[in-house]
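#structure-requests
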Amino acid sequence: MSVTGAETNGHVVIVVGAGPAGMALAKNMADAGHEVIILNRDIKFGGLAEYGIFPSKLKLRGGLKKQYWDMLEQPNVHYFGNVSVGQGKDLSVEDLQALGASAIAFSIGAQGTKAIGVEGDSASGVFHAKDVVYHFNRLPGFGDRPFDMGKHVAIIGVGDVMVDIAHWLIRYKKVERVTAIARRGPVERKYNPKEIRAVCSNMDQEGIAKEFARIKDRLAAVGQNADEVLTNLTAEFTKCEQTDSPSKMGFRFLASPKRVLVDSNNRVRALEMEENKLEPKGDDTAAVGLKQYYEFPVDSVVFAVGDRVDDTVGLPYKNGVYVTNPTKTGNDPDDALFQAYDEKSGQVVDGVFLAGWARKASEGLVGIAKRDGDWCAEVIARYLGTKGGQPRTGAGDVLAKLQALLKERKSKPVDLEGLKILDAVEKAHAGAPDAIGEFKFASNADMLAHIERGRA
């Protein structure tokens, strides 16, 4: 997919966020002949592709990085890393609107975390999945933060994020046991069978068989044969990656955490669980609590319960999401889905768009985010076409205003040259003992110091 610039030549488009959605959007706009300014909170580009996938997936990460480097080399693309947007940050939404760009697209991801909503969720040893993923991907602010997991870790959820966290716990932390906990049953598990290969050599198959025996009657009540389901589940344990870890992994199905139980030091000691049954719900099933409770001893809990957007950015916000235009346009993709909308005035926020997880939190991974960026580019192209092809302000003026504002705010933006210096330094550290996959500095201060030394 490409967006042609036939009717909209030379506009300035600001893209906030340099993850897969933002970079796809920026590429489409740049290829169409527009001047693109990328503002990124992190020093390094990539977002989810850099800090959200398991770091040893070097083939996927390397392919994406090459595409991003190539795009940033285009003369009509201008990168500003280490620049945060929001209330009290380097720049506000109003600052960006005043620069004179024709359109501003926010692809800043879903940086908030949903409230867990159970008693004890602030105890020591309770973690959000995203924070753990950021930690082992060495995102500044998380990479050098201690994550004391203990011996037995419960992960709430049975999707691909659970598998990545289990992978880290088993292969690198070598905890004694990991238990994935699901409100529903094994049929409703969400992880990709190919992903489970990373941990299946450490599966406690005897323990899993006992778990199936425990829930056998409840599965039968909705027409699920426990023996067949177990056979199907364990049949996916093929081509397992071998590890030297003694860790064991298992599952606990039809279980809802109701409370985090703590010791005298406010440290996790167990989960209070409620037994569930399954009830048919259309073509699917729903978990229904049985009011039967028990303690499940664990040392830490990782909640993979989804994300919400950051309500401090300054975009129209409601109930964990940024508000988009409720009036459908009938276009494909529908313009309304990508337009920021002010419910107080009942109007769209002119020229402000949303893409990726900023538009729809936790929707898919890299491929879905990229597609969303492509779609948003189509919507912006239509919007620019309604402007008669005339840019509001030239790129030189917008860049001059932006650079003056960042200097006034004493910000420390990182440009393409700085990225290249940092990339060379990190590659020189390849093979460092604490690196998973590629070496990364875990603090902005370290990265900025090396960039400054490289410029000297």
